[in-house]
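Submission checklist for the structure archive. All mandatory fields must be present; incomplete records are returned to the submitter.

[x] Identifier: NAD(P)H-dependent oxidoreductase
[x] Organism: Tianweitania sediminis
[x] Residue count: 197
[x] Sequence attached
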Amino acid sequence: MIIPRILVFAGSLRVGAFSGQVADVAQKELALQGAEVTRISLGDYPLPLMDQNLEREKGIPGEAMQLARQILAHDGILIASPEYNASIPPLLKNAIDWVSRVRRDGDRAVKPFGEQAAALCSSSDGAFAGMRGLYHLRAVLMACGAEVVTPQCSVPHASKAFDSNGDLVEERLRKQMETVCRALVQRAAQLSKRADA
């Protein structure tokens, strides 16, 4: 049985961010479903604004290469994203844009996002739960070649959505998260590079 490797991160660096709490829940659920989970922060990969002039002059930033390598080392990714003006937060979009520019790692041709399954979660203190931003995020990742699983989990009224242990209060949301993680684990296992070994 293949144990898929899943990379989890949030699209926000704000202290106490709801997306970070959603990522915490996803991390626990993925582990319960048998995945090998790695949790990172985009704050560990500080990047300048994506600029092709900068890329031409200086090349792809080292932090973008490091993040690309993290993604490529996993069979799937789960992103927990906030919503900014009904779309993708700039921190997350900038990271995706830089990583998508990585074409080679040494002598090896690579395609970050093109070799992994991806799953999406969102959160907001409003009723829309950040789900409007996921339409854009899904489209961007698909344009980068990612296979995004259909189920997603969107957490509304997020300031009241978690108990003292950091778990989701509502049974409906817990089931959503289970479904998302199950779909990701199954597809990531199928796509695993170790499947050919």
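[x] Structure attached
Curator remark: The chain has six helices and seven strands. Helices lie at 18-32, 52-58, 62-72, 90-100, 131-143, 171-191.
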